[in-house]
Amino acid sequence: MRAAAGADGTITVFDPGDRLGGILRTEVVGGQPMDVGAEAFVLRRPEVPALLAELGLAERQRATTGVRPMIYSGQQLHALPSGTMMGIPTSASSLAGLVDDATIARIEAEPGRPFSWRPGSDPAVAELVADRFGEQTVARSVDPLLCGVYAGSAATIGLRAAAPAWRRRSTAAPPA
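Structure for Amine oxidase domain-containing protein, as requested:
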């Protein structure tokens, strides 16, 4: 923000809590500082709840607020698209209103396009998704999601890191 506002610009931060930072904070765990907060655990896989139960921490788990994440694009807020896998659309309709008509057409045509895969390769998520679904899909759906989950850009996160299930498959044949 400072770079955008310039040295003389005023930046005002509003936070409804008793301190800045929302639910993100640093706690001391085992004598070491640890960042905790919003993305501390992903609970859709069974391993994390099982680990919490094993450690006697299941009762300390807190549910999310249920507020749907939003993306600011084209001078307006859009709900983070549903019907995607890590922001990658499963259908053109999942990104309707977020991307332009040319990108919607590209998404619709994607299943019919040939796909080549170099065994053992690990392209950046942005490279693969832009090729298949267009730059707007990366900028308006994939990157906002990956930034939140991995605190990094789709341009620097490899496909194998973002989608570990493809790691085994990517060494031999293209993903189906």
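The first helix runs from residue 2 to 5.
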